Amino acid sequence: MKIMITQGEALEKGIWPEVMKMFGLNQEDDVWANEEFVLSEEQAKTLGLIS
To answer: Would you give the end-to-end CA distance of the chain in angstroms?
Structure first.
């Protein structure tokens, strides 16, 4: 299963720093609020999005 989350949703949920690390992003990278990231089921579980 794949889970999609936008940068804006990740910010709202307080998990954006973890998503940044998972995708190798840093503060200098330009990311749009509606940019989507595809998470594996394991990544989504790690972030507490699913159980």
So the answer is: 13
